[in-house]
Amino acid sequence: MDWLLFIGFFWAASLMPGLNMTLALSLGMSVGYKKTLYMMFGATLSLGIVAFVCAFSAGALLLKFPLFFQIFTLICAFYLLYLSYKMFKGSKFSLENKATDISPKALFWQGFMSSISNPKAWALFVALMPPFLDKADPFGSRLYMMIAVLMVIEMIDFHIYALGGMSFKKILPTKAYLLEKISATLIGAIAIIMIVEII
């Protein structure tokens, strides 16, 4: 397996401003970097579970039946479009109403549920994991090394976004609501690209 290709592809995909990274950015602004760590741990653990499930079940099934993969991707894309619309039409983001009293446990589960229900993550791993698995030994050490690498990359990117959110709060506190509009637009663009690739 070409590890450079694997790492480069996933790192580029991970850095895209999807739902999980937008959450890390928003929490970095609203509750601060240290509290956002709990969300990061939950989301990263969840991501490892998604990667594992895709490698052994959904990935194999969808590769065997390409039509299912196309339908699944379209469903994910339309869901992203819906979330993009809801984010864009939502009320202005206010740093004055930040949830500083949210518990570490709640942040952990927020991150976990955000990642496990993120269609972008499922679609990405369905496409990414199977081609890089060892066909002779799909349950072998390569799989677990891949998942570990994915989790490390995701955690690094979460730190980048959370620290960025904290910095954004300091640099532009009165215009923070623009972040939601930008994030919504980017998520919508990702969904449109997914649809175009299927068509």
TrEMBL record:
<feature type="transmembrane region" description="Helical">
    <location>
        <begin position="6"/>
        <end position="25"/>
    </location>
</feature>
<protein>
    <submittedName>
        <fullName>Transporter, LysE family</fullName>
    </submittedName>
</protein>
<feature type="transmembrane region" description="Helical">
    <location>
        <begin position="143"/>
        <end position="164"/>
    </location>
</feature>
<feature type="transmembrane region" description="Helical">
    <location>
        <begin position="67"/>
        <end position="85"/>
    </location>
</feature>
<keyword id="KW-0472">Membrane</keyword>
<keyword id="KW-0812">Transmembrane</keyword>
<feature type="transmembrane region" description="Helical">
    <location>
        <begin position="37"/>
        <end position="61"/>
    </location>
</feature>
<dbReference type="GO" id="GO:0005886">
    <property type="term" value="C:plasma membrane"/>
</dbReference>
<dbReference type="GO" id="GO:0042970">
    <property type="term" value="F:homoserine transmembrane transporter activity"/>
</dbReference>
<keyword id="KW-1003">Cell membrane</keyword>
<dbReference type="InterPro" id="IPR001123">
    <property type="entry name" value="LeuE-type"/>
</dbReference>
<feature type="transmembrane region" description="Helical">
    <location>
        <begin position="106"/>
        <end position="128"/>
    </location>
</feature>
<feature type="transmembrane region" description="Helical">
    <location>
        <begin position="176"/>
        <end position="196"/>
    </location>
</feature>
<dbReference type="Pfam" id="PF01810">
    <property type="entry name" value="LysE"/>
</dbReference>
<keyword id="KW-1133">Transmembrane helix</keyword>
